[in-house]
Design goal:
The complex is a heterodimer of chains A (80) and B (388). Chain A is mainly α and 80 residues long. In chain A, 50% of the residues lie in helices and 0% in strands. In chain A, helix 1 crosses helix 2. In chain B, strand 2 and strand 3 form a beta hairpin. The chains are: A mainly alpha (80), B alpha+beta (388).
């Protein structure tokens, strides 16, 4: 799952460095993720994993790191 | 409102009177409103939002908003300086954590009524404060920093400056710290001065900033979090309060003009009178939106949630856009009511300063930039647009 998330970040995250160089707990915002890119990443993740982000999970925390995204996506898949 | 509300209102009124007395001179000379700031210090109003646990009065954002509005009614520049100072206080309160130096500094802000300024702009980064070029350099416990700032408002008059920078020389541009630079450890070299249409008393100048400090002066909380959770909500609410104040004074002058006309013309009003209804309606709408935003932001802070939900960020962006546009509309209506008496300087109904000061509102962060960012946030939301 983390690899798929890294792919999405590579395509939509508009990060200055490649997501493959980021560790699971590295802060994505510090790595250059903007609020705008966050929305694009969210839409792409919904598409890739066939889930829907509820508004309650639309906060900075969810998108803080690859590990955080992985947790959120797993939770959403389990609840589906 | 906080306890001793009546007594607080008196102090606010007194400081606002000082601001009103010098507003025209401050604007004409483009000078720092030293008399207003002195009055605010004398009435212990600068430290109003320092929490009680840091030795301050523990006032709420709503108290600061009332002050911004009241000061704005007297002098737009004083109101805006006061707002900018409170934004720094809010950022410091949010970012201080358990750091002893920072907690002591917050005590000093309240005790000594320190004026705080902001150094977020930097030559080469345009309007995006979430990006820095300069970086902190460390040697043991010491940290130094050199920043070429394109604009520091009232920088020459601040007791301390909150400066953004990259965490260190290796950090990416968005990995930023916020450092509290005391005036004594900072060398400011003016590189240019702004000559602006309005808000001329904010005395914005470009400076080269050289800071010598200790590591303990760097806020523990990353700047990105402070910006999103404290700086942005506080900025939009307090700037909006200043603009409402300026617009209110403009419409008060328009109403006074109409009273004067009615007395002289035995009851008949000039054609522009019908605009008074729409101008006052605009003020009511501004007030309602501000009160809602204050309540929503306070509810969020009480929930202890930390990061702002995108929905609240979008609301606070929308607030800034709406208030800036409405304030400009209100002063335009007032100008049409007062006619030449409003257009001329030196009459009791003069609106030039109000008009020019409010032209800054749609530009301090350009509304077009904000609208585009906000549209993206709004697209992401699933909840229905209208609450029950």
């Amino acid at each position: 799952m983390e690899d798929k998330i890294r792919d999405v970040l590579a395509q939509c995250g508009r990060l200055p460095t490649s997501p493959s160089t980021l560790a699971a707990h590295d802060n994505l915002y510090d790595a250059g993720l903007t609020s705008l890119a966050t929305v694009n990443v969210m839409l792409a993740l919904e598409e890739a994993f066939d889930v829907e982000f509820p508004d309650t999970l639309l906060t900075r925390r969810s998108f803080e790191s690859i590990a955080a995204l992985s947790d959120v996506v797993s939770t959403l898949r389990a609840g589906r | 409102m906080s306890p001793h509300a009546g007594e607080l209102r008196e102090r606010i009124r007194s400081a606002a009177s000082a601001a009103a007395l010098h507003a025209e001179d401050v604007d004409r000379e483009a000078r720092f409103p030293r008399e207003s700031i002195q009055a605010l210090k004398g009435h212990n109003l600068l430290g109003i939002m320092v929490p009680q646990r840091h030795g301050g009065p523990g006032g709420a954002l709503a108290d600061a908003a009332l002050l911004c509005r009241t000061l704005g009614q007297s002098c737009g520049s004083t109101g805006l300086i006061y707002a900018m100072h409170q934004i720094q206080v809010a950022s410091l309160v949010a970012g201080a954590g358990e750091n002893a130096w920072q907690r002591d500094f917050l005590c000093k802000v309240a005790q000594d009524q320190l004026l705080l300024g902001s150094v977020t702009s930097e030559v080469g980064i345009g309007g995006n404060i979430r990006s820095s070029i300069c970086a902190g350099e460390y040697e043991g416990d010491a940290v130094t920093l050199v920043k070429h700032s394109s604009a520091i408002s009232y920088g020459a008059h601040a007791d301390a400056l909150l400066v953004t920078a990259r965490r260190d020389a290796e950090a990416p541009s968005s990995d930023q710290i916020l450092l509290v630079a005391e005036r004594s450890g900072t060398v400011l070299t003016e590189t240019s001065r702004w000559d602006t249409l309005g808000m001329r008393g904010t005395d914005s100048r470009a400076f080269e900033v050289r800071v010598s400090a200790r590591r303990s002066q760097i806020l523990d909380v990353p700047f990105g979090d402070i910006a999103q959770q404290s700086m942005l909500p506080t900025s939009h609410i307090l700037w909006g309060s200043v603009w409402l104040g300026i617009a209110t004074d403009a419409v008060e002058r328009a109403r006074a003009f109409l009273r004067h006309q009615a007395k002289n013309e035995s009851g008949s009003l000039p054609p522009g009178a019908l605009r008074l209804e729409s101008a006052i309606s605009v003020l009511s709408t501004m007030r309602a939106r501000l009160d809602t935003a204050l309540a929503d932001y306070a509810a969020h802070q009480n929930s202890g949630a930390g990061a702002l939900p995108m929905k609240l960020s979008a609301e606070l962006n929308g607030l800034k856009i709406a208030l800036s546009e409405m304030a400009v509309k209100a002063v335009q209506e007032a100008m049409l009511i007062c006619g030449i008496s409003g257009y001329r300087n030196g009459t009791p109904y003069s609106l030039g300063r109000h008009f020019r000061d409010l032209q800054s509102a749609p530009l301090m962060v350009n509304n077009d930039r904000i609208a585009l960012n906000t549209a993206t946030l709004l697209v992401a939301q699933r909840a229905p647009l209208m609450k029950d």
